[in-house]
Amino acid sequence: QVQLVESGGGMVEPGGSLTLSCVASGFAFSRSVLSWYRQIPGKERDLVAHVGYSGDATSYEDSAKGRFTISRDNAKNTVYLQMNSLTPEDTAVYYCQAGILNGGETDIYWGQGIQVTVSS
How many angstroms separate the CA atoms of 98 and 84, rounded? Predict the structure, then answer.
């Protein structure tokens, strides 16, 4: 059974930092691509950052570039999102996503989401 469990969210003041973690189980972690998304109530879920199989290939949504860092530890089945210089606009529910190769297709799985609130 595939499981993705996020942690590390909470409330932080503007300019602060948080690191989100997502621990995965139930699949071959090193054969998955991993992403962090975020969603504000009433809006679509948007991609924040993405990391490839080995961790060398990463990509970021424009507002995250230079402030957020996605990384993965295949030995710990964990993907991280280090977030610095947070602003109130970063307030959202953050979701971990895994894309798992399954033959010629990719199966998509989501974590339950975790709240990040940036406020003074």
Answer: 23
